[in-house]
Amino acid sequence: MQNLNNKTALITGGSKGIGYGVAEALMKAGVNVAITSRSLTNAESAAAELEKNTNAKALGIKADVRNLVDQEEAVRHTIEKFGQLDYVIANAGIGHFGSITSLTDHDWRETIDTNLTGVFYSAKASVEALKDTQGYFISISSLAGTNFFAGGAAYNASKFGVTGFTQAMMLDLRNDGVSVSTIMPGSVSTHFNGHDPHQEESDEAWKIQKEDIGELVVDLFKMNKRSLPSKVEIRPSRPPQK
Length: 242
Prior knowledge:
Layout: E1 8-11, H1 17-28, E2 32-37, H2 40-52, E3 58-62, H3 68-82, E4 87-90, H4 105-133, E5 136-140, H5 153-173, E6 179-185, E7 188-189, E8 208-209, H6 210-222, E9 231-234
Parallel strand pairs: 1-2, 1-4, 2-3, 4-5, 5-6, 6-9, 7-8
Helix pairs in contact: 1-6, 3-4, 4-5
InterPro entries: KR_dom, NAD(P)-bd_dom_sf, Sc_DH/Rdtase_CS, SDR, SDR_fam
Protein name: Ketoreductase domain-containing protein
Family: Belongs to the short-chain dehydrogenases/reductases (SDR) family.
């Protein structure tokens, strides 16, 4: 089993939702974490809150995954602060949903640029650092990355792309000692796409919770390096019956 104590992780979109849940779980396991957001205030506020509940250190960074230079700077700041980079979780994402007849050019570009190109930029910016530490790269895809649905043209395209990109990257890097996986969640109770989740005792309780994804990431990082779950689908165990 891998020891995570004093390792370092960089999480894109880590100020809330799945990214925050992953950051919290990793910090409880002894990992120092850098989280990015397009808002420096949000990133620093989340980092301060995370440090209250753990003994590890957190760093908030302003960065937009749609900008390669931002991602390169995020990696540089992380290494300057913590001395190394062991893990990258490419989590930042958005969703624009609607029929192809109503989907705008702006919505298409923002979805692809954030969800797919953002993962590419995160990988390009961090791959050499991960080679140095024999590290681990995880993308957060979705069950929508293999299952299409009406109104999902942009989102499906982006997540199908993330799934394919990450699996090809896994083959590119495994002989360099870098592990690569994609996690594909179903319904998660977060603020994604403007959603307002309720407390656990409410009708959100059946959904995957952000801490569940955090637990999964910790488990992946702890695994013996000889084994690699390259694609992990995770669903609510008991969704409401239709």
